[in-house]
Amino acid sequence: MAMYDIAVIGGGPAGYVAAIKGAQLGGKVILFEKDVVGGTCLNRGCIPTKTYVMTAEYIEHIKGGAVRGIINNPETSVNMEQVVKYKAGVVKQLTDGVAALLRSNGVDVVKGVAKMVGETKIECNGTVYEAKNTILCGGSKAGIIPFPGVENKNVVTSDGILELTELPKKLVIIGGGVIGCEVATAFVNFGSEVTIVEMMPRLVANMDEEISKGIEKSLKKMGVKVLCNYKVEEIKDEAGKTYVVANGEKLEASKILLSIGRVADLECLGTLADRIKQERGKVVVDDYMRTTIPNIYAPGDINGRIMLAHPAFKMGEAAAACCMGKNVKADLSKVPSCIYTLPGAASCGLTEAQAKEQYGADVMVGRFPFNGNGRALASGAGEGFVKVIAEKKYGEILGVHMFGGDATEMISEASSLMAMEITVNEVADIIHSHPTFSEAFMEACADALGECIHLPAKKKK
Amino acid sequence: MATAIFMPKNGMAMEEGVLVRWLVKEGDKVEMDQPIMEIETDKITMEDVAPASGTILALYAKDGDTIPVLETMGWIGEPGEKVEAPNAAPAAGPTTPETAAETAGAPSEVLMSFPPEEAPKAAPNADGVILATPYAKKLAADKGIDLANVTPTGKHGEIVGADVENAPTGPKATPVAKNIAAANGIDLNTVEGSGFNGKITKADVLGGMHQAAPAPVAVDEEGVEARVKMSGMRKTIAQRMTQSYFENPVVTQNVSADVTALLALRAKINEGKEKADRISINDFVMKACAIAVSEHPLVRTIIDGDELVTMKATNVGMAVGSEGGLIVPVIKNADMLSLSKLSAQAKDLANRARNGGLKMDEYTGSTFTVSNMGMYEVDSFSPIINQPNCAIMGVCRVRDELALVDGEVVVKKMMGLSLTFDHRILDGVTAAQFELRIKKLLENPMEILL
């Protein structure tokens, strides 16, 4: 059988991008995918949840129409079968697109579970393939904590929740991270009674504290019950009903979403599992995505550096370029992250707490609330803020945190300028179109310098 | 009779030239054929010489002016001699609206024009071409400077060679990288950029993140025990040491000081004191150095271009080894501090230097540095000057020596002192006198206390 330049195991964001990049650079590439190309992101993650949240946003707009003078009947409900069907259409369009891209680049795609059986050998469906380089893109799967009752038939992970064709009356979400908050946003608007049980003192605990507060407030406003500092003890059935027991409280649930995090899927390591170094269940790689075996690379969720699709794209590209003899690092220092709640949140860089820990008093914080932004008010979206954290001496932007407005789109401006190492002084001088949500970022930068035009003058200290 | 200095016509095609700079000023005495000005034509830059011997009576043209050939630019003659006023059409620089208004009877459109920008950038002409003299273009190409970033001063808005020379050079760098480099005195030309087209990023300046491309796996690494990337601090030390080592012609002079009395005095002072409050030998040496530095202005002198600059303050740096490398905290105005105050400050600074708690102004601005290797039993060494200082005192160990005093053999405590100095600034004798002064102070320690 022909020797490939690159074999890619897994067709998610890291894998399919690596395959295309490798082909672009002239390599002969084969890609193995056990399911449908597109990975978690397209099939079970980013895209389906965003489709659901948009459906929720429609409902919110319809219900909120009356204050704007729209005369309608705000009774809304969802036909879950159609919700799932619509989502499936979106997903199919995108995964078909990825398949077409792979085909147009001449990548051989093999469907099946593939595993390493040697440094240059991959086995799939009983056939052994050979490649000079292998890129392991096994991705990740929903993590499961083995507390009593976790095997209950009403427990689903993020995979299952997106396939429900019947709206759960009472949805209990264990884990108030990004997935938990997004699913809560969708299902509370669809009409479920939603409770989030979070072990940490706040939701999305790795984000800036103000974002956590903002999201908690808006979820509560939508009717979500948020229980932080709650530890789940067990899941049990009693008299035909399922309950989540947390901090001694019994919470009735028709469905339970387990969203406590994701773990790397190491199945593709095969017989090399004990030769490729791992730490805490993740493959260890350097900045070039190389594993401890020189011709084997591991970009994406499998290395656990940042479990998001967009850094996975870049990691996949770097790995493929390295396979083709280039030395390309994946720089993951300025990766934005987004939460698609209503309103959404986004951030890039250090949180205020992290910045103060690292830089002490040499930190400036600028803030601009959306209720001072014309576009936001016109859109009925005065909730939220943009916060900019900068270092005093050099003006370096250390972190940007947005809640509200069009945060998930706006963050790209901040992360781009941060990647270019533009200072807060320069951003304050860049003309932003008016009226836009984006002006808030410029205003927050100006506020960090004490020069914001559209905020009341601060009292001189 | 006075002789005119004029723009020479160096070729049939030459119509005007640029006065790059005068090499003389009014009142200077010059000899015939002595170079007096640097001029630039569209082909070359050259020096032009005095057409006569005498005194420079007047210089009308200003550096950077573009002047038609054969136009008078100044006069040479006898002091007091009357000379013709400059030509009716003076070879002035770019005409400003104000002067134009005065001479041309203030037409209204001139009054309404915008004031000139302080530093007009070269604007491309209608064809999109930036006007520049051929020499300026060649210079820019050699230096890798983009003409679009050069401020033109030519008569017709063209860029002349001097403009290119004066243009801020330097590699491309991100704003944050530039700020960090500027604040820490790092020359961006010495930094290798890792970004697109060699753009220098923050990480490049800090020297931490950027790694060279991975070495081919086949390289014989067997003999290597460890390969560690230099920390930013280590890189800075390496760069400064190399710079100092190769820039200064240095001499090290070794003397020994009899510190028997000093040690006795120190013992007396420290009697009954807590360990933290005790005065160290190094405190005495630093104070003695501070006194001597304050008395010898040349030791506080640095070279700036072709000038010698003497600093007012006696700020004594002390080399402290820390985990990351060497750092030199500075005791400001050490000559004015009492020994106990100096001692307390030295302890505090050394502690914080080791724990990385120094503020920027606590490790900059030294005029002299003391490096003590005595505790490691070093007998003599040649310390490297902490630039821009012009000298550094290496303090060596104290050892017992036998000496004859009044026919009796006695034991004396002798301390070695190794002074390295920059021979561009200090001559051997001056340095020896300075070092002798320190020796005398150490041998008569009461004088240090006074």
Structure notes:
- Chain A contains 13 helices and 24 strands.
- In chain A, strand 1 (3-9), helix 1 and strand 2 (29-33) form a beta-alpha-beta unit.
- In chain A, helix 3 crosses helix 4.
- In chain A, the strands form six sheets. In chain A, strands 1, 2, 3, 4, 5, 6 and 19 form a seven-stranded mixed β-sheet that branches. A five-stranded parallel β-sheet of chain A has the order 8-15-9-10-11.
- Chain A is an alpha/beta fold.
- With 450 residues, chain B is of the alpha+beta class.
- Chain B has three domains: 3-77, Beta Barrel (OB fold (Dihydrolipoamide Acetyltransferase, E2P)); 98-166, Dihydrolipoamide Transferase, CATH 4.10.320; 249-449, 2-Layer Sandwich (Chloramphenicol Acetyltransferase), CATH 3.30.559.
- In chain B, the strands form five sheets. A six-stranded mixed β-sheet of chain B has the order 9-18-17-16-12-15. In chain B, strands 1-8-6-3 form a four-stranded antiparallel β-sheet, with no helix packed on it.
- In chain B, helix 9 (281-295) packs across helix 11 (428-443).
- The radius of gyration of chain B is 31 Å and the shape is extended.
- Chain B starts with a strand and ends with a helix.
